[in-house]
Specification:
The chain is an alpha/beta fold. The chain is built from 13 helices and 6 strands. The mean pLDDT is 95.
């Protein structure tokens, strides 16, 4: 069992969850909407209390296009713009994070998932990671040292390798292969026509990987097999889109990611924002 724990927060995933989970009528005396800031802080504090991490990191998306958009311009093109009432709260959430001393990592050309993936593959010795997110793409990162923690008001869901296999039908490392075949509407990845989850899982159980499936695609019968052969190049592109990078060109200082225990500044920021909430309980 690892002696240290690292909590990694997917910033926008948790922010959106907070915004749509609490009413926008929650405001400061000056009229500023703070439902997302309140929800984000409550989730962060609750996770710190539960995980008791030695390290805490927050990964964020950038506003610029990523390498995935360059590969496939339609990537996530169906998503609506961020609501203005949420956008106005981003500086408040950043203030809260700054007050806790938790750094925010972002890198132009990459998504938060790529930063998270790289973090999970560069953990200090004897450290296990808990990634807090609602993004199922991150299930591919799960291994014996990395778990995905999906926050829930009643009970958080923790994904281990066995639970990923049970829920998805494939082991964590095959999640990109699965998404390449069946598609992913949340990311606007089309997938192979006429191939749903059951067919994709069946194929991967027999051929193990997308590449091996394509190598023996002539053996695959029916209309789905025909579509697979006609879309081989697209299938490989879709897998690349669905695969989280583990080697983004950025450096992490684990000493800077060590969670501080002096929350004096945080208490002041909470008071200034009009948020009545308890401080995280550590140690």
């Amino acid at each position: 069992m690892s002696s240290k724990r690292c909590l990694i927060i997917d910033a926008f995933s948790i922010t959106y969850r907070a915004f749509f989970g609490l009413p926008t009528t929650i405001r400061t005396r000056q009229g500023q909407t703070i439902n997302a800031a309140l929800g984000f802080y409550n989730t962060l504090s609750s996770l710190i209390n539960q995980v008791q991490p030695h390290y805490v990191a927050v990964a964020s998306d950038c506003s610029q296009a990523t390498f995935r958009h360059n590969l496939f311009p339609a990537y996530k093109a169906q998503r609506p713009p961020m609501p203005m009432e949420l956008k106005s709260q981003l500086p408040l959430i950043r203030r809260l994070l700054d007050s806790t001393g938790i750094p925010v990592s972002e890198l132009p050309g990459f998504e938060a998932d790529d930063i998270i993936g790289t973090l999970t593959r560069s953990l200090p010795a004897d450290t296990e990671a808990f990634v807090a997110t609602t993004d199922r793409d991150t299930l591919q990162l799960v291994n014996d040292h990395v778990s995905i923690l999906v926050p829930h008001s009643r009970e958080n869901r923790i994904y281990t390798p066995d639970i990923v296999r049970h829920d998805m039908g494939v082991p964590p490392e095959r999640v990109p292969d699965l998404k390449a075949l069946m598609g992913d509407s949340s990311d606007n990845i089309p997938g192979i026509p006429k191939v749903g989850p059951k067919t994709a899982v069946k194929w991967l159980a027999e051929y193990e990987s997308l590449e091996n499936l394509l190598l023996y695609s002539q053996r695959v019968p029916g209309k789905a097999g025909e579509n697979l052969r006609q879309h081989q190049d697209k299938a490989l592109l879709y897998k690349e889109l669905a695969t989280i990078r583990l080697d983004v060109p950025t450096l992490f200082c684990w000493r800077a990611l060590t969670l501080q225990t002096d929350f004096t500044q945080l208490r002041q920021t909470l008071e200034e924002l009009g948020i009545r909430a308890s401080l995280p309980q550590t140690g």
